[in-house]
Amino acid sequence: MENKFLKNKIFKSFMKYKHINISIIAISIIICIVIFLFIDKNHYEDEDDLDLGLEENITKISQVKEKKSVNIKKPNRVENLKKALEENDETVGWVYIPGTSVDWPVMKGINNDYYLRRNEEEEYAFEGCIFGDDDSVFEPFDKLSNNIVLHGHNLDDNPDGKRFAQLVKFQDIEFAKQTPYIFLTTKDASLVYEIYAVFFTDTKFGYTKVGLDEKTQQSMIDSAKQRSEYNYDVIVSGKDKIITLSTCTYKYGPYGSVGQENTRFAIQGKLLEDGSKLKEKIELIKNPNPRQPNLK
Is the pLDDT reported for residue 174 higher than 70? Predict the structure, then answer.
């Protein structure tokens, strides 16, 4: 009898704890399910955010690529040239460089001294005007010189200054990236030159020579590239027709000093085929070791 009573007590205790354990297990399962659902929800939300982020990045990259590949229209300066010719029949062209005030007629006198201190109206002006080298042939197009050389004063190395002082802007790499072309309109052609060298040089370097043979022209082009402040991704050969913009610089000394008298700042570009696609902006890197002018 006593044993039966004891068995009943043990059995009741077991059943009591069994219900408790089942309850604990059930609660634990419910908690695990809730936690799992919460984590899973956040996981998908994170994936959605990640997908959205990737889509945004892809869109941005595409926009950058599209911006780099945007083609610009060739500016028209034909009417400007016609008007300039009416005012002075020694006008041989019109030069334009975006982002600068270089948007002027190009004169050509009896020699390189005539327009040195004269403006387009042939009046005295200390800053002169832009004039073509007396060896350069501007027209007809089939006789165009293999090196069109334009001269202009730089009075103070001020990028906002007069005449070719504006070329100092190219000493800023960001400006150079956004300005890859020089536009020249002649009496019978609208020309686009792609810049391949921006450099300081001594006057002994024959970068303004006109009528060079192919081999000598190639040597001059290669030397200009070695001097360039930037490495342009532009292939140029001795067969290409080029343009040279030449001006003073005060980087190596003040006005009248040996350093100033014997050095120049120059830009060169190669003539593109008519109809070439023009980029809005280019990639550039600094030349780590540009060849320096010989100041002796």
Answer: yes
The H or E element that residue 200 is part of is strand 190-202
Angle at 149 (CA atoms; ends 290, 134), nearest 5 degrees? 140
**193 contact partners, CB below 8 Å, separation of at least 6:** 181, 182, 183, 184, 242, 243, 269, 270, 271, 272
Helical H segments across the chain, by residue range: 2-68, 78-87, 173-178, 214-227, 258-261
Plot region of 242 (φ>0 → left; ψ -120 to 50 → alpha; else → beta): beta
Q: pLDDT tens digit string along 117-143?
A: 999 999 999 999 999 999 999 999 999
CA dihedral sign, ordered 159, 162, 166, 171: negative
Nearest in space to 83 (alpha carbons), one of 111, 121, 125: 121
Work out the burial of residue 218: count CB atoms within 10 Å of its CB; fewer than 13 is exposed, 13-18 middle, 19 or more buried: middle
CB 210 within 8 A of CB 135: yes
Q: pLDDT tens-digit profile of 43-71?
A: 434 444 434 443 444 344 344 444 444 67
Q: What is the pTM of this model?
A: 0.77
- Rg (C-alpha) for the chain, rounded Å, is 37
Terminal alpha carbon distance of the chain: 128
Cis-peptide into 293, omega within 30 deg: no
Q: Which residues of 118-134 are buried (b: 16+ CB within 10 A; e: fewer)?
A: bbbeeeebeebbbbbbe
Q: Domain 73-286 falls in which CATH fold?
A: Sortase; Chain: A; (2.40.260)
Burial level of 95, CB count in 10 A (0-12/13-18/19+)?
buried
- Six-digit token pair at 111? 């020699």
Residue 63's φ and ψ, nearest 5 degrees, are -65, -40
